[in-house]
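Teaching assistant here, posting this on the class forum so everyone can see the example we discussed in section. The complex has two components, and the goal was to see what a joint structure prediction looks like when all of them are supplied at once.
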Amino acid sequence: MNNVWNKPFICIALAAVLCVCACAAPASPEELRDDSGNAITITPPAERIISLAPANTEIVYALGLENKLVGVTEFCNYPPAAKDKPRVGGFSTVDIEKAVALQPDLVLAAEKHNKSVTPQLQKMGFRVVSLYPSSLQGVIQDITLVGRLCGADTEAATLTADLQKRIDAVTAITGGLDSDKRPRTLVVIWNDPLIVAGASTLIGDIIREAGGNNVALQVSGFSSMNLESIVSADPQVIIVPTSMDQQGDPLWEFITTDPRMSGTSAVRNSRLYRIDGDMIYRHSPRCITALEQIASFLHPDLFSKPAQ
Amino acid sequence: MDTALKTELDLHRARVQRGKLLLMLAALVLVGVGLWSITTGSTAIPVHDILAILQARIFAPEKADAYSAIYNTIICDIRLPRIIMAGLTGAALAVAGAAYQGMFRNPLADPYLTGISQGAALGAVAGFLLPAAVPAALVPVLAFLGAVLSVAAVYSIARTGRTLPVTTLILGGVAVGAFLASITSYLIIVSDEKVHGIVFWLLGTFSLADWWRVAIMIPYILAGAVVLLLMARPLNVMQLDEEQAEQLGINVERTKLIILAAATLTTAAAVCFCGAIGFVGIIIPHAVRMTCGPDYRLLLPISLLGGAAFLILADTAARTIMAPTEIPVGIITAIIGTPFFLYLLNQKKKAVF
C-alpha cells in the first residue's frame, strides 16, 4: 500500500543523492589517494609547494603555479627557470632541515622517498603527496590531482584535455595495430650492467600506446636483462634515452658498436633512436611528446615527424 | 730399519700418486663444469647445435656461418668469454687466497684483507662518477690503480725496518680499508642518480664479459698465478715458524713481498673488471685444505682449478636463476658458498675433536 517507490519526491531525492555520491565520491577529501596509496586531504589549497622530483616541478610549472613553488631539487632543470628556485637537496638526499625551514603546506614527493623522507615529513605534520604514475593515464590523473591540491582545477582541466587529445591522436592510429605490425621494441637505459625498461613502467606504457611490443615485459620495472636474452629476443627497434648534459655516451656507443649487438634486427636495419631522457623518465606533461616521438620512430610510415 | 725406510718411501709414492690423481680430478671437474655451463642459459639452444658451432668455430671458421647468427653470437661471444672470465677470476681469487692464508698463517686471510677490494671499489666508483665524456674503459683502469695503490699504502704502513710483521700488515689493511670504504660510501651518497652500475659492480658481476676484457686479464692472472704456484715450497716451510723458516734457508721477507705483489696483481686484474666478488678466496682454499690436505704444492694448484670451477658454477646460476634478469654473482657466491663452507667446517670439527 505504502510503497515507497510510488512517492515521486522520495525517488527524485534518492536519485539526486545517488547522483551526488557518484559524482562527488572521488572528489570528497577522505577518498583521495596518491600513488603510494596514502589518503590525502585537499583543503586548504596549497600556497607553498616543495617539489622533490624534477617531474613534479614540471607539472607545477605546466599548471602555472610556479609562484607557489618554494623549493625544488638540484635535478630540476626544466623549465630553465626552475634552476633559480631554492634547492632542498638532491633526489634521494633531501635536506630535511631546509625543507622544514621553507614551511611548505604541500610536499610533492616520488617513489624514492616512500621509506625515508615521506614518513619523516608526515610525522612532522606536513602534507606529503607522492606522485609516480606508471601509465600515461596515471600522469593525466596526477596532473589533475596537483591542480586540485593547489586550487587550479580549471588550469588542470585545460592542460589534461589538451594532453588527452594528443594521446588520442596517437592511439587512434596505433590502437588497432595487430601484434605483427607492432615492432619488437627495447628501451635500454644503462649498459654496465644492461638495464631495460620492463613491465609496469611509464616507459613500458608509452611503448605500448605508441604501437610497439616491449620485448622486456618479462622483467618488471627498471631491471637488468641478460645480454643473451636481449640478443635472442632480437629487438627490431632500440631506443636509448640520453641525458642532455652528457657529451660522450657509453650506452649509445655500446648499442651501436658492440659486435654482439650487431646481429639484432634493430642494429642491422639501423633502427636505433635516441630520445631526451628527461622526457621519457619523468611523469611530466612532456612524456606525451615522448609518446609522439616514439610513435614516429616505431611507425615512420604512419606518423610524420612531430613538432618539437 | 730397511723396512721402515721402505714404508716411508711407499707412503711418499702413494702421496705423490694421490696428488696427481687429485689434480687430474680437479682439472676434469673444471672442464666438465665449463662444458655444462656453455649449454646452460636463458636461451634454450640444443646441445648438438652448440657442439656443432664450437667445432665449426675451432676447426673450420668458414662453416660456422651455416648456423643461426644469433646462436653463434650467444655461444661464442656471450657465453664463452663470460665462462672464461668467471674461470680466470675464480682461479685468481682462490690461488691468491690460499697463498695469503699461508703467508699470514691465518685462516681468515684473503687478498681483500690488505685493502684491495676497497681500493678497487673506490677507483671504480670514481670512474663511474667522471663525466661521461671520459671513456668507460677507464673504470677498470682506475679500479686496478686503486687496488694496487691501497696495497702499496698498507705495505708502507706495515713495514717495520726491513721486516714486514703480519700483524701490522693486517691492522694496516683493516684501517686503510675502512678509510677507503668510507670515501666510497660518501661518493655513492652524493652521486645520487648515477648509482645504477655502481651497486652491481660492488656486488660483482660478469654481465658484460667479452673477449677484449678476457685478453687484458689473461697476462696478469697467468703471470701472478705462476709466481704464486712457485711459492708453494717456501710457503710449506713458513708454516712452521718464520724464524725456523729463515734457519732452513728461506728468505721469509722476500717471499712475503713476492706473494704480496703477485697476489695483488692477480686479484686487482680480476676485480677491476667484475667487482669485488667475496668468499671465493676464503672458502675454496679451505675446502681444498680440508679435502686434500695442507701441502701447498697441492693446495695452490687445486685451489686454482677449484676456484675457477666454483665461480663458473656460481655465475651460471647468476645468469639463469632469474633469467632474463641477472643476479650479481657475489650474492650467489655468498649464498651457496657459506653453507657449504659451514658443512666442511663441521666435518672437520668432528675429525679433530
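For the discussion questions: Chain A touches chain B at residues 75, 90-93, 189-195, 216, 218-219, 223-232, 234, 243, 246-250, 253, 258-260, 263 (CB under 8 Å). Residues 153-174 of chain A form the longest helix (22 residues). Think about how each of these relates to the inputs above.
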